[in-house]
Amino acid sequence: MNQIQKIFRIVDPSSLRVRLTIGIAAVSALGLGSLATWTSWKMQQFLINNYKTNIQQINQHLPYYVELYTEILPGENGLQKAINNLSTSHTYLWVKSPENQVLVQSDNLDKLPQKEISELINISEISMKPIVQQMGKSYFVMCGSTLTLGDQAVGTLFVVQDVTREQSMFLVIVQSLGIASIVTITIISVAIAFYIKRSLQPLRQLSQMTEVISIADLGQAQLYLDNAPSEVRELTQTYNMMLSRLFQSWEQERQFVSNVSHELRTPLTIVHGYLQSVLRRQNNLTEVQQEALATAASEAERTIRLLQDLLDLARADSGNLLFRLERCLLNDLVTEVVVMAKTYSDRQITIESTNQSITAKADYNRLKQVLLNLIDNAFKYSAPETSVTIKFYQQADQAIIEVCDQGYGIPLQHQSRIFERFYRIDEARTSSNGGCGLGLSIVKTLVEGMNGNVTVRSRLGEGSIFTIILSAYLPSSS
User: Fold this and answer.
1) Any idea which fold 230-318 has?
2) Strand, coil or helix: 463
3) Which of 2, 87, 393, 424 shows a CA-CA span of 20 to 30 A to 168?
4) Is 431:437 a contact under the CB 8 Å cutoff?
5) Which segments of the chain belong to CATH 3.30.565.10?
6) Number of H helices, E strands in the chain
7) Does domain 326-471 match CATH 3.30.565.10?
């Protein structure tokens, strides 16, 4: 399968290399084919015209020789003598009467095969202009004219010349010319393909260079190609200007998000504190007022979390999100996280692990934030009566944590994008749950900041498993 895919990549009909190769090869084939056809036609015309000229001369000179020999020899003897005199080893003559009877024929006609003689003699009408005709495996140039002696028409003169040998040689030459043309076209196509591949190499290098550029590299990314064509150099300069504009735009957006998040978080925290203080003194409040204040406090808390997430992402993008990697005992950390989660939810949370202590290289507080986000995500997207399970174990030099739910599941086409910022599968369901599409993005950013990796496995109707892989803290680790 891999070999087939590789072949399809090489002969991709939409690629510029394949299109140029096919186009130039087609033009070359058309040019060489036209040249070969024209050459073959001219060669045949030249060959046949020579014989036609000879036949026409015989046709013109025969009456003179007939008159000359009939003065010496009586009757048909003079005619026979004239025909034999003009005949050669490959030229045959005969005269037919108006009743289509053979009056005389050249003596060398008997040297031909009987079948060909019969076919030639049975020709009743023939063109006044020389034509080429095939009989069996033989080729003949033939023409005819009315033979007159004095003012009297004797009959029809048939002049035929055997050109089988020459025609066979011509066909061999044409065949050789065709094979040579095909070989030449093939060689030209291969040479063109290699030349085009080499000519497009700068574009391939440019594509490979831009492919590895990430957001973190935008500020320092500069594309440069040695010995590239002027068009490619212009394209490279355009890419560099585009990267510079993208970096400036990204920096402005990041700075804006960071400033807004920082400026809004403090006043919202104060507002949330006042709301909580008022709710604690709810004796003087009506039920409607209590409900309104509780809703405002909840929304304020949600907005503060959103701003904190945005601030963390902005710090991560700028490289200012610091991590303190140290030895973390996962047994204690998971227990603490479960206790915290149960303070704001009565959902059942199960811990599954071995009896041994499992340690990982991680930032304790950041990893706690990651697990709380994943547990909160599991609560939002699973039924209230289902439980959430946290598993952690060690595998070789890796410490692995799994957060499992029995929720709705994630469609396969969305699983590769759920860690993107603000990406939400079901807009209506996410909004009702209070999600903003940043939780899993924060999880991915924090886990990768601890040199780890996070993945998801999910089936619709069966739930999801989020797996965090960190480096285990082995006894030999410093």
Assistant:
1) Helix Hairpins (1.10.287)
2) strand
3) 87
4) no
5) 326-471
6) 12, 12
7) yes
